[in-house]
Structure formats: C-alpha cells, structure tokens
Amino acid sequence: MVDEKLRKLRDTIDKIDVEILRLLNERAKIAIEIAETKKAKGLSFYDPVREKSVIDKIIKLNKGPFSDEVIKTLFREILSATLALQESQKIAYLGPEGTFTHLAAIKYFGSFARFEPGDSIKSIFESVEKGLSKFGVVPIENSNEGTVTYTLDMFMQYEVKISGEIIIPITLHLLSRSGQREKIKKIYSHPHARAQCREWLNKNMPNIPVYDVASTAEAARQACIDEEIAAIASEFASQIYGLKFVAKHIEDYKNNYTRFFVIGKSFPGKTGSDKTSIMFSLQDKPGALYNALKPFKDANINLTKIESRPAKMRKWEYIFFVDFTGHIEDEEVIKTLEKVKDYCIELVHLGSYPMFEH
Q1: What is the CATH number of domain 4-86?
Q2: What is the dihedral angle through the alpha carbons of 337, 339, 342, 347, rounded to the nearest 10 degrees?
Q3: For residues 190 and 216, what is the distance between their CA atoms, to the nearest angstrom?
C-alpha cells in the first residue's frame, strides 16, 4: 500500500506537470506568432540579446531549491526548442561528433539546433561565409595551452563576425570499450589533450604508446572499434561512443578551460555586458603599438586579450588581435577606436557580443 501522504504528494506533482505542459505549449504558440511577425518584417529569428535578457530575469527570480545553473540549462533548452519551431538553424562545429567544440555548441544553442560537424576550422569559416550554416563554433584559446592561432589566421581570410563566446571546463578521462586498464595496448589523443595529461600518463601509463589523432572525439571513435585502444576524451564522448571509464579526471591541472567563438554573418546589439574583438596592422616605426593601445588606457577600457600573428603578405609585418570590454555601439568605444585608427594601417571590427558568464 502506498502511504497516503506520498500519494497526495504525487498527485500534486502530476497536476503541476500537466500545468507545465499546458504553459509550455502556450508559450510555443506565442513564439510561433512572434516568428510570423518577424518574418513579415524581415527580422532575424535568433536574437541572443533577447535570450540573455530572458535567462538573466529568470535567474534573478530563482529562489531554489534548483541552482541557477540548473535553471539556466532548463531555460536554454526551452529557448532552443522554441527557436526550432520558428526556424531550423544549422550550426557548424569542429567535428567529429563528440568533440569539446560540439559540447560547447550544444551549451550555447541548446540541443534542438541542427548541428553539422566540419572536418577543419577552415571548413567552419567557409560554411558560415557562404551561408551554408547560420553559425559556426570554433575554439579560440585554452587556459593552459594558449591561443588556437589557426583560428586567428582564418579571420584574415574570411568575411565573418564574432557573435558570441562560450567558455567550458575541460575535464579529460581515459576511456575504453571494456574499462579495464590491463587490456590497453595503445592510447589515442588529440595533441592538446595529450599535453594536458602528460604527467598523469608518465606516472600511470609509462609503457603504453600514445598516438596523436585529429580530435578527442576521433580518439573515442577509434577506441569504440578496438578493445586494445584507450582514448583521452570527455564524458560527453564516452556517452556518444559507448565507452567506459578507465580513469577519471586525468588532466594535470584542474583549472582548465577552453574558450570558443560563435561566428556568423553579423553580431548582436548591446546587452550592457559585452566584449568586442578587433584586428589591426600598424606602421613599422618605434612606439606604434604603444600609441595604438594608449587610447584604451586613457578611456579606462579593459583589454582582455592581445595576440599577434604574421600578416603573411609582407615579411616582418604583423596583425594584432585585441579583445576588450564594451560594445562597438558604446559612445566611449566609438571615440576610442577613432583615435586608435590614426596609428593603424588597417583596423577591422571582428564583432561585439555578450560576455560569457559562468
């Protein structure tokens, strides 16, 4: 016999579930009406500024017991499912399925978007520039391994904008079909993941050879078809490829994060908590870089990243990539960039986008 109190509590939950379902469908119907209005006016269906506003308001209202992160995830999925009713968005990401880039794309767009793996960072830029994909997701830097310079190089070749950023923690595991360490004869890993687990591997698997592959997901795919192969990959990859844990959290440094860019043909409006990315080339003379950066200091604008890359057009010339807080539409940013331009051969605005919040 079911306890009477338990029965009543379950009945209450059942009634709440029915009400949640009714409200979700009511919300979806209104969203479809909004989509029809946007279509008639030629407006974009996807509005990251609006999405951020919705989630921020909900988080402020949250009193628990669900954590803010759980509420954020739930509403991200609701927004993703709603957008899928309005427009099927194709999102290109650095594949194959199960990479950290794939995980970042899902975290940003929700699981109801249409995800398409690409075989290279270059292919993601091409897909977005040609309009084959609405957005693309590419890695830009890791807190331990530094900048993904190839991604920076692509901004010199393709006409795309940065429309968002995602930062996710990188946790690495040793995975195999059996989960039994004694059956492992070789390990597959992406070079960056291998570097992040070097000390653990030397201590725990000193006699097992490690082979480089194109991604952690490819390592997982190989382990899926050969019981003697172990992969250094994510828990996400283990779920996709049906692998078991040999050892968990084998990364040498636990505060390990990777930042990703969302690229598109345009960038969103102001949210009040934004970041801007630019690239510029300088005249070859003493003090050129100092002069170009000084206006940011004078305006009290925080530079969050600066990186240089060879221009590849003329030897010994460099392109500088800079991230700073603020939006290109901010009056102070407009004034500052006008001063910076005086010292640049060329200055290109790569995008302004909502600053990622953990």
Answers
A1: 1.20.59.10
A2: -10
A3: 5
Tell which residue, 102, 331, 114, has the closest CA to residue 237. Answer: 102
Domain spanning 173-240: CATH 3.40.50.2300: no
Q: How many CB atoms lie within 10 A of CB 358?
A: 7
CA–CA separation, 29 and 20 (whole Å): 14
Percentage of the chain beyond pLDDT 70 is 98
Distance CA(317)–CA(334), nearest Å, equals 26
Three-state secondary structure call for residue 95? coil
Report pLDDT digits (tens) over 65-89: 999 999 999 999 999 998 888 877 8
Phi, psi of 334, rounded to the nearest 5 degrees: -60, -50
d(CA 340, CA 42): 35
- The CATH homologous superfamily for domain 267-354 is ACT domain (3.30.70.260)
